[in-house]
């Protein structure tokens, strides 16, 4: 269990599905690297932590932003049919009646009468006693997953409001606004990245399941007769996105939902799953939501949410294909997948072999000697110059061997070393993260050299 201080909540997901001590220790190594290098840190740490909350530190924030930027680029900037948006987290309470969340967004929980641990009933798999201590379990009780709060200074029923449990609804309720402002033709989509909140019964597995998380969602509006085909296309496109950013194919699979697993709004859904150290688990779901959402919002708001098709002169509710992924899970998958250990001249080297679009730092400039002012000054100048084009850091806080190890662990693509000879021949040593090959490059050519090497799309 990777959440700290959470004594009451126990997730069966924390029990390894594969008996591979290797994998378990891999998860420990990822959590430890994240803390050691400032990728992901326990939330409210100095107060002993708030269970299952995590703060992204400097490198984690860069990585997360790069994941979101790559997603946005692939799904908004490189397409002509998708519009980006950023809707409010707080929405009219009627939205959640229309969406079905008030009635349907429940988990069933049961707790142990002896050790008081809380379980999600679906995860108990018909076990009648506590899987932990063998104690008697209470009857299953429904539990709405939405976070409730109050809007305004008076805490009464009229001010009750929810933190959104998915970003999707912000796009459905803007369907009409987008038709009026952008005049799109079917098929077209809306894309959004933002926070969502769910009062999960059993959060856990580090950042895999938390109560506050970020989603990357697309709502793609299509002719109803094209929905099945578009669903298949989106499954392939989303699968390729992960592969193109370096996730190994053997760690990725598509899993169609059985009828008994489908959400209340979905006619079909396929999950893209990643082979996490704790078992195959969902990264993203791609669903055919039919015309459920637009019809519901039309009924509850009284607004006409149909689409008029100029060609056929028909008015109808479009179907919606929804690729919906989690930012935090995706970041975790990239961390796990890119982690490797190697032996170099009898010593262990840890590398995050992240794709160049995702690596938090592209280049580090390191002076070989810090007691020579001219070397430090030159190294700082080079770093400052490179910062104009890419994410570059200057570091002189340790000896060169240690600096290389640090940069390898955070996935920095190139290390540039400035030495005594650089002062004479105006050349520096460029070290490649993956091959560890070193090359002397002229200082005035280094920007061009890196530009060619780094296929930087962000
Ligand atoms: N709009 C559809 C929807 O929200 P979902 O399968 O419930 O569908 C979509 O959520 C994605 O959001 C999941 O595939 C997962 O990546 C992410 N997600 C859901 N709950 C999460 C949680 N508690 N912690 C982290 N990520 C979560």
Structural notes for this entry:
With 458 residues, the protein is α+β, with helices and mostly antiparallel strands. The protein folds into 2 domains: 20-86 and 164-335, Bira Bifunctional Protein, Domain 2 (BirA Bifunctional Protein, domain 2, 2-Layer Sandwich); 361-454, Anticodon-binding domain (Rossmann fold), CATH 3.40.50.800. Helix content is 31%, strand content 28%. The chain is built from 14 helices and 23 strands. The protein has helices spanning 21-36, 58-77, 93-99, 101-104, 121-124, 168-172, 175-182, 227-244, 292-301, 327-338, 373-386, 400-410, 420-425, 446-453; strands at residues 40-42, 54-56, 82-85, 106-111, 118-120, 141-144, 148-150, 160-162, 188-197, 212-222, 252-256, 268-276, 279-290, 307-309, 314-316, 319-326, 339-344, 347-352, 363-367, 392-394, 414-418, 427-432, 438-442. A 7-stranded mixed sheet has the order 3-9-10-16-13-12-11. A hairpin with a 2-residue loop joins strand 17 (339-344) and strand 18. The model is unreliable at 1-20 (pLDDT under 50). Glycyl-adenosine-5'-phosphate binds at residues 166, 168, 198, 200, 209-210, 213, 215, 217, 282-285, 322, 324-326, 328-329. Residues 166, 168, 198, 200, 209-210, 213, 215, 217, 282-285, 322, 324-326, 328-329 line the site of glycyl-adenosine-5'-phosphate.
CATH class of the largest domain: Alpha Beta
Extract low-pLDDT stretches. Answer: 1-20
CATH topology of the largest domain: BirA Bifunctional Protein, domain 2
Count of distinct structural domains: 2
| CATH 4th-level superfamily of the largest domain | Bira Bifunctional Protein, Domain 2
Topology, number of strands: 23
**What best-fitting shape do the alpha-carbon axes yield?**
globular
- What does the main sheet amount to? 7 strands, mixed
Distance from N terminus to C terminus (CA atoms, Å) equals: 35 Å
Rg, please?
25 Å
């Amino acid at each position: 269990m990777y959440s700290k201080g959470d004594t009451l909540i126990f997730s069966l997901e924390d029990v390894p599905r594969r008996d591979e001590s290797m994998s378990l220790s891999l998860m420990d190594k990822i959590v430890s690297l994240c803390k050691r290098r400032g990728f992901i840190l326990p939330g409210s740490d100095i107060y002993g932590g708030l269970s299952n909350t995590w703060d992204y530190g400097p490198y984690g924030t860069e990585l997360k932003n790069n994941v979101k930027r790559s997603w946005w680029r692939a799904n908004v900037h490189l397409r002509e049919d998708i519009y980006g948006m950023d809707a409010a987290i707080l929405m009219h309470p009627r939205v959640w009646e229309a969406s079905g969340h008030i009635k349907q967004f429940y988990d069933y929980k049961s707790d142990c009468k002896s050790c008081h641990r809380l379980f999600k009933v679906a995860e108990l798999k018909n076990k009648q006693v506590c899987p932990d201590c063998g104690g008697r379990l209470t009857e299953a009780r429904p539990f709405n997953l939405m976070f409730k709060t109050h809007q305004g200074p008076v805490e009464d029923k009229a001010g009750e409001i929810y933190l959104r449990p998915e970003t999707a609804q912000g796009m459905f309720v803007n369907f009409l606004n987008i038709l009026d402002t952008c005049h799109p033709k079917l098929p077209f989509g809306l894309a959004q990245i933002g926070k969502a909140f769910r009062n999960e019964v059993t959060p856990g597995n580090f950042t895999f399941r938390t109560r506050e998380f970020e989603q990357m969602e697309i709502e793609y509006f299509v002719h109803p007769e094209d929905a099945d085909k578009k669903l298949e296309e989106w499954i392939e496109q989303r699968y390729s996105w992960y592969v193109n950013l370096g996730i190994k194919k053997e760690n990725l699979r598509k899993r169609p939902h059985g009828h008994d697993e489908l959400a209340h709004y979905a006619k079909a859904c396929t999950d893209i799953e990643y082979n996490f150290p704790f078992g195959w688990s969902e990264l993203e779901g791609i669903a055919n939501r039919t015309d459920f959402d637009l019809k519901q919002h039309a009924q509850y708001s009284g607004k006409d949410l149909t689409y008029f098709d100029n060609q056929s002169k028909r008015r109808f509710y479009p179907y919606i294909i929804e690729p919906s992924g989690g930012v935090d899970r995706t970041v975790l998958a990239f961390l796990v997948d890119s982690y490797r250990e190697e032996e170099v001249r009898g010593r262990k080297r840890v590398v995050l072999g992240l794709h160049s679009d995702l690596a938090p730092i592209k280049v580090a400039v390191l002076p070989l000697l810090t007691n020579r002012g001219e070397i430090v000054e030159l190294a700082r100048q080079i770093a400052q110059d490179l910062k104009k084009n890419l994410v570059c850091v200057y570091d002189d806080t340790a000896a060169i061997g240690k600096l290389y190890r640090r940069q390898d662990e955070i996935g920095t693509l190139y290390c540039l070393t400035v030495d005594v000879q650089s002062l004479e021949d105006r050349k520096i040593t460029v070290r490649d993260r993956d091959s560890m090959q070193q090359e002397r490059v002229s200082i005035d050519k280094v920007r061009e050299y890196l530009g060619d090497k780094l296929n930087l799309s962000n």
